[in-house]
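#struct-pred
JK: can someone run the complex with adenosine-5'-diphosphate? inputs below
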Amino acid sequence: MQELLNLFNLENTAAIMTSRIEVVQGDITKIKADAIVNAANSALLGGGGVDGAIHSAGGKIILEECMAYVSANGRLPVGKAMITSGGMLPAKYVIHTVGPIWNGGKNNEDELLKSAYLGSLQLGVANNIRSIAFPNISTGIYHFPKEKAVAIAVDTVKLFLKNDLSIEKLLFVCFDDDNYELYQSKLRT
Ligand code: ADP
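RT: done, structure tokens with the ligand placed:
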């Protein structure tokens, strides 16, 4: 850690942490990171939203790897993550995680969303990634309230990065204006 602090001529980890997180608006399939995260479903067969976009831009190799995973391990539980290659995407890997479907907060949704972020980060670190891009997991078809999801996402990754210096850049890729504004204002706090 001290080496990194010296390298950037920074006095504390808080400064490093803030500079490592960025918010952008756009299409995550265009991001050239070591890994992009997919808001998948447990079947891992592709679907709508960001999942559909990743599978259609990444090509059939990603689906084949997902199918091989499911035949060996079964469906991916909510809050867990698995990894495939990036296929034809600019990203090297896709980390597939399953966020919770919002059910009024009665099904442990907050903890499961946190676990989806943490599981993705841990898997990324285990695969030596240095940069990672997240979509706004569960805030589309799964209807998790956006403001609450943003707070969980930002707090969870900040805490993780405090204890991990191997990830150099973490991007939140927002597709819609609402999320973009919410992430920017949450990161200013
Ligand atoms: P979930 O089922 O987890 O809600 P969705 O794909 O429906 O997953 O939505 C998750 C978030 O991803 C939403 O905020 C949606 O606007 C966003 N999204 C959809 N397509 C893309 C894309 N190509 N790049 C980045 N984000 C996207």
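RT: quick notes.
The chain has seven helices and six strands.
The helical segments are 2-7, 13-20, 49-58, 60-73, 109-126, 146-162, 177-188.
JK: thanks, will look after standup
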